[in-house]
Amino acid sequence: MLDSIIKFSIKNKLVIGIMTLLLIIWGVWSATKLPIDAVPDITNNQVQIITVCPTLAAQEVEQLVTFPIEQSIANIPDLEETRSISRFGLSVITVVFKEKVDIYFARQLINEKLKEAEEKIPDGIGTPELAPVSTGLGQIYEYIIHPKKGSENKYNAKDLRTMQDWIVARQLYGTPGIAEVNSFGGELKQYEVAVNPSRLKAMDVSITDIFNALERNNQNTGGAYIDKKPRAYFVRGIGMVTSLDDIKNISVKNNPGSVPIFIKDVADVRFGNAVRYGAMTYNGDVDAVGGVVMMLKGENANSVIEKIKEKLPTIQKSLPDDIIIEPYIDRSVLVDKAMSTVEKNLIEGALIVIFVLVLFLGNFRAGLIVASAIPLAMLFALAMMNVFGVSANLMSLGAIDFGLIVDGAVIVVEATLHHLGLRKSKQRLTQTEMDEEVFLSASKIRSSAAFGEIIILIVYIPILTLVGVEGKMFRPMAQTVGFAIFGALILSLTYIPMMCALFLSKKPTYKETFSDRMMNWLQKKYQPLLEKAISIKYWFVGIAIAIFAVSIFLFSRMGGEFIPQLQEGEYAFEFKMPIETSLSQSIETSMLASRIAKQFDEVKMVVGRTGAGEVPTDPMPPSATDLIIILKPESEWKSGRTYDELGDAIEEKIAVIPGIIVEKSQPIQMRFNELMTGIKQDVAIKIFGENLDTLALNADKVSKVIQTVKGVTVPQVELVSGLPQINIEYDRTRLANYGVNVEDVNNVVSTAFAGKGAGVVFENERRFDLVVRLDSTYRGSIEDVNNMMIPTSTGSQIPLSQVATIEYKLGPAQISREAGKRRIVIGFNVAGRDVQSVVEEIQKKLNNQVKLPSGYYFTYGGQFENLQEASNRLLIAVPVSLILIFVLLYFTFSSFKQAGLIFTAIPMSAIGGILALLLRGMPFSISAGIGFIALFGVAVLNGIVLIGIFNQLEKEGEKDVLKRVIEGTKIRLRPVLMTATVASLGFLPMALSSSAGAEVQKPLATVVIGGLVTATFLTLFVLPLLYIIFNSKINLKRKFKVKPITTIVVLLLSLVGFTANAQTKDLSSVDEAINIALKNNQTIKASDLEIDASKALKKTAGELPKLGFNAQLGQYNSTKFDQSFEVAQTIPFPTLFGEKKQLINAEIKGKELQKNLTVLELKTQVRTYYYQILYLQHNQKQLQQLDSLYSDFIEIAQLRYKTGDTKKVDISTAEAKKGEINLLLKQNKVFLNNAVASLKTLMNTREDFLIVENGIFQPLQISNLLDNDVVASHPAIQSLYQDAVIAEQTKKVERSQGLPDFTIGFTNQSLIGFHTVNGMEKYFNSGNRFNSVNIGIAIPITYGATKARIKSLDFRKQASEANAQQQQRALTTQLQNALQQYQQDMQQFNYFQQEALPNAKEIVSAAQLGYKTGEISYVEYLFALQTATDIQLNYLKSIQQVNQSVINIYSLINQ
Question: What is the pTM of this model?
Fold first, then answer.
């Protein structure tokens, strides 16, 4: 098939040219449509449930909101993890689903369950809502809105927030690909009724009165319409408030005979703002407003950002002239940086590969032909990526090595050049001749080209099995490399042969090129080194193995990290202040930190995000701030600092601010960490338990311990307690005296301080809440809470302090839960060390230094968790890829030895990979692990090239191993060096790159380059030495042919114990051979041992459960120290013992039947080989007689030739015939030796034996007539029926086990103290013992499980019986067929014995006499001899056929 493809490509150059053009068009079109991002989106499949409840503290949020929702969603299918945060006014629950679940289906499931949960949440507390359908990479565009210089005082935070919500966000909504625009910072405008408590008291008005008045006086209505011909007039009642004046003039109280009391009399009506939970600062100068655009999951970041940028000019025009929108995070910048890194590496790699190819091939045209495959394969890969929905990013395009891609093309072009160089003619080739030459060379090498590409493809297959984070990260890479290599494979069979035929020089040149001179120089250096290595081959190989052992040791000491962090070009500093810090203090501190950071020349802009946004997907408390530092391009940096040094310097400066904890990170990294694992740091130590104070106490201990570990940044302990609260504790008696309910008081407190919505005020389209709360002057201290007036049932008002105790207390700041349990997190990042070694050191220290109370335990999360999961998957993926490589090698070379030899390339390449990582100071990461997988595939290819040439030289007749090695290495030095150089140098730009995104690619490239250096060394030195050692010491090429599978099993098991005697023994009959085999064969012995093993279990039938002994010591009766001792025994239902015994007996019988089957198979094999040997011995005698006949004929022919009666041709013909007989004799001898060896193996003996021939060679015969029912005794059928018996007996055991168990026990105890005996108090000490007997019965209440097992055993029994019946029918049919075959074979034998054989003897004697006397010619004599020969040999064959039929019948009737 491959030949046909190559031939078609060479003959139809125009068709291939057009197809190549179509590939280019398809590839370029696909490249424009391909989704592009910096890194693959590795966020797990999650849904966030957010409930805002502004008036509740953390404990109430957990009890009333979080817990009911968690309970409702607990039974949703395919859940992987649930975690939640409950803090003042907010509940955020993150639900992680398995990857296979569609996100919209998951949201629907949660929505259904939320309806149930809402019923359990009290009214008015809050409504659970789902967060936007976005991911860790979803925050693609972040901007701030701020006034231009000079207009800072013109707009306040309220105005800016209104612009953001009603102008900017509204116009961004509806952009395709946007899930949410999350507003941040500023003040949310409200119409505020600020109540004055003094006026309320004076005018005897309560807050509830105001609330009711506002609700009743802010509504419109409709009165249908009035039909007044010719028009209809619609009736509309307009009572909605539209201004502050409207609100002021609402009447609160209107007692008859008095002046009405208006809102303006008791409250100040003004523009206010909602209670703030978050804020934003810009460059440390202004309290700014911003927005975060969140992309819909699965969208193309670049195209969404383009659409946003298209809308921004229109939005900017709709804002006042002195307000500007300034983006500070634009994902497309990072994407462009990462893509430029990929493009740079790919272009540089391609140029290096082209240079190396031209250098090694010594032919510019050939180099360009191979190089032209690079862009074409790349375009094919891009097209396939578009088809399969793989996005273009650092990982998917980062591992493409053009050296690997052109491998197939190199092999084809190099073979063509080599083939053209061997031509003797010096004439210019015609196009037809050139086509033929290219076809010949390409078809010869096609399998090597294809095989090389296929091995690389297979190596990448296990990567496709990775799931989770590492699957999302690395699967696109494996897919892209697979597409590129598959494209290159197609090109190497179509495009490359066509281009070779068309463009390679048709005029043979014999001039030595630079490439030839370079290779000659390398040969001169290499050959003496190889010869020197051969002279010390054992030392050399030993040293190589020792280096491998050392590198494995070093590898075990090498640390590990999950994935090297991508340099995003921006910093995110997370800093936390004490939990009691107010929002205004946090904003001040954020602005101070921003001003410090802005002092650095490299910083372009600093944006601080404090607390939570409008949609709190990142639920930070007001005391926490994320400081996003946007940097200038590195080309504008003047200080000479690196990216990491700058980050450290900024962190050092900010850390001097008192009372804050600073943590350096990057925006995407921080968001990924938090969404994936619930924390923003790389590693989290989680402590699970119930009591928040105990959790906080132990977390502080852990924090102190881990600070002593090198490489750990300052640990951030989750702040779960210490939130200052003003607690109002109601006195229920006083409440009752005043006739007041808790609900009424709570409503007043909530409205007065938090504010309560009393309706909505519309400004055209815009809508703002109308809120009632106390004037800020009267809600500033605990006294204000004390003095707040509460209406009573009599209509009077009393201060809150009359019915409640009000005091300061510390309460929980937030309650974190995971999998339904409370937990606290100690998070930290790792600097200057790898994650794995840090965590291992911490684990040791915590085990020794921190003892947790019972019910409390540690777990580890974050990056470390991901690293462990990924490493476990790679522990499966890597061995699978190695096994696949080995299987491919075995199928190619059909030799375990040679496959093993080539396989040694893998450990040798691993040495280089490990040392390269160590030299560059890199830890083992998943990137490096993928590098090793790719490396193993490349390393094996060179071994294939070398072993292939050694085999070829052996076929050509070179028997000397040393000469084969010297000659083979000489021929293959160029391809070996070229493959390794091209593959390793193709990765060089990646390994040395320092631009954006290079961190992820560096470990991969480092491993491949380092590994190929040592792998090439192995191919050129260690592999030839191993080949010499293996081929000079042992020969593994002995093959044996055995037909039935049973024989293979018998042979393998029989190899265990040969007996070592060297005498020759006579075997007089087949029965003697069978007896020896039955006695010696290890398989039979194994069957006997299996039976003994089952018999040994007989004693277990009466087994009782263990005798229980319990001691109870302590104050169980009184304050005295008493002791109690109890002995108890459980006794199963008595019928169980008998049923168990019956089951064991049935299993013993089953093993005995299995042994009978093994014996029958062994007898059949022994008979087969015994009668085969007998036949071959007689055949040998017959051939020897024929040999002597032809010798006589030659003598007569020579005599007659001398006398001139015949010609020379008589003698030649006779000698040719004698040669044929000789060949038959030799073949017979080989068959005989093989049969003897097989029979010796079956008999498990090393003794030589001789099968005694008793008179005439006669066939076996079956004397009695056979009935079909005789098959029923066959062990295979009996064994299946016995399986049914075992199933029945097992059923009885199950039934007995389902019956009640009995318990009997005896207790002896002391009861120290005074006891009444016969009416008198008497003191009993520990020597006075009290005894009791316990009798119990255990009755199974879930008998359904037992019934299910019994039913299953019923089905198993029926299955065994059905199999037995089917087997019996099959064997009966086989027996009938075998008997018919036997009759046919007997007829054939009778014909030869009675008719053909006597005629043959007469033909020979008559022909001899006739030829001697000259009556017949030599032709007639030869024909007569040939006829007689055929008859005599076929007579022996007919006997052997009868014997085989009889042996077959014996095996069917169990004889």
Answer: 0.62
